[in-house]
Design a protein that fits this description.
Elements lengths: L1 H43 L3 H14 L4 H13 L3 H14 L4 H13 L3 H14 L4 H13 L3 H13 L3 H9 L4
Helix pairs in contact: 1-2, 2-3, 3-4, 4-5, 5-6, 5-7, 6-7, 7-8, 8-9
């Protein structure tokens, strides 16, 4: 009888301990998301350096927080720290290879770094998975033009225009595309 009581008490103790552990995990997750939300608020205020610091703190606590990498990458791009932006967008892609926005954003950063072939490869990834992505066609057009492929650029801008990108018409005219 004492053995049953002791076993029951041990089981109750273990369950109570696990409940406390789960409560601590939930509390940590809530605190982390609150910190992330502060980073988003800083981003919206255009306080990009502050946002970078906050998102970096989130990533120290949770290196798998994809949105923190993505948001920090946007902040790096907006502060013209394109190499760091590429690193953050690459971290997203490494963890989620089908994240099209990360490819688009990294491709744009590569364009700014004048790494046009890498930019084109990223936009190819987007277009291959989302053939109606007018932004990817438009951006790949700029990378193609900068790399010396004017006919390819015009082809991309025409595709972007057919998908409804009003800006593409102006680009086509200004670049004398037929």
């Amino acid at each position: 009888m004492l053995r049953i009581i002791a076993t029951s008490l041990l089981a109750i103790s273990l369950i109570a301990g696990r409940a406390q552990d789960l409560a601590q995990v939930a509390s940590h997750a809530n605190a982390l998301e609150a910190t992330y939300a502060k980073g988003e608020q800083a981003y919206k205020r255009a306080a990009y350096q502050e946002a970078i610091a906050i998102f970096s703190d989130v990533l120290q606590q949770d290196p798998e927080h994809l949105n923190a990498y993505l948001q920090r990458g946007f902040c790096h791009s907006l502060t013209k720290q394109y190499e760091k932006a590429v690193a953050d967008f690459s971290a997203v892609i490494a963890r989620k290879p089908d994240h099209l926005w990360a490819y688009t954003s990294r491709g744009s950063a590569y364009n700014k770094l004048k790494l046009y072939n890498k930019a084109i490869m990223d936009f190819d990834q987007v277009i291959g998975r989302d053939p109606k992505n007018e932004e990817a066609f438009n951006n790949r057009g700029w990378a193609r033009k900068a790399s010396g492929d004017a006919p390819g650029a015009c082809k991309d801008w025409c595709a972007s225009q057919r998908m409804g990108n009003a800006e593409a018409r102006i680009i086509l005219t200004n670049n004398r595309c037929k």
